[in-house]
Amino acid sequence: MNRIPGRRGRRLIAVLSAALVASPAVAACGSDGGGTVVNVYYSTEENFDKVVAMCNQAAGGRYTIALNTLPREADGQREQMVRRLAAGDTDMDVLGLDVTWVAEFAEAGWIAEWTGADKSDVEQGTLAGPLETARWKDKLYAAPKNTNVQLLWYRDDVVPTPPKTWSEMLSTAEKLKAENKPSAVLLTGAQYEGLVVQFNTLVGGAGGKILSDDSTRAVVDDGAVKALQALKDLATSPVASASLSNAKEDPIRLEYEKGTSAFMLNWPYVYAAMGKANPELAKHFKWAPYPAVDADKTGTATIGGFNLAVSEYSRHKPEAFEAVKCLRSAEHQKYSAINSGVPPTIESVYDDPEMAEPYPMRDTILAELKKPSPRPITPAYQNVSTLISTILSPPSSIDPQATAQRLREELQDALDSKGVLP
To answer: Which of 141, 295, 378, 400 could cross-link with 228 by S-S, CB 3.0 to 4.6 Å?
Structure first.
């Protein structure tokens, strides 16, 4: 995910002393022949330019949305926006924020609060889990554009009934291995945000907490200890992938497409990719909810996705708020889901008949979105994430009780701005 800069003071000094430079790919002016231009800064997403074109047509010339594509990597996206916002750049109007960035940007005063009719429009029909990622201190600071949850992917030709718990998944895989059948369990275990997502999901599936509800205290309770044990159990199992400690989303997708694995924990985009890469295997490529740690609890998946925020420094706020509402409307969320593979945040879209073929797993996604496990919502999330991924890497080295205590101590330092980044 994102590499985390240093402490706020050190970072801002570096930022404010740096020259403000925008690459040609993302540079845009605030006007076009005197007309109002709303500059949207967003990650690379297939067909999003077509959504922008549709919204420009709907605007009828009152304003024009200019799409500025940010770097593909999250590090580069965040770095560019932070530098420009810290310098008070007025040419940025709409910002595409990873769901983990809203609290930090809001606390820094960089994004505008959604109020009145604009706020009501966003809240109407939006799923509660994704909506929570757009809030900070009980105020709405962004509009959820698309969301995401990981699923358990399996082969129904070797696993007729998917496991419901983590231990059942491991025991099933080990039995398959003994029978010389596809058996590996693939998971994002590299030292990055993907490992944090797995840990956070397992914590939720054990009914645990990493931070307190107000995100001021490092809790790392018994549920979190159970999650650490679950990661350890997989990492030391004979069915763990040899690449576990270096594994990220796309490499494990490619590995699964070879047909030698039984289970994979990954995002829904892998379904369409499998259909193209291995059509025969795709016939047996199925999905189920993320397995729980405790047998009496259902799996609780971590929410991903992007939110759209309006810059506090924008000189075109009314047009920017209107543009955001168009870009993330139900119509355009359905278009992006069908054509770009990004799950909607508006519940009614899942019931649309046109979603049936491209999103056969939509009911499972929706069920997970209704009982999510949000990542800790805190302005210090970047530090929190880096510390968790560092402490848990490699997963085979986890000592549940000792690792939990280290997490409590170092996460608390990070929350108190005492920590030195590893």
So the answer is: 400
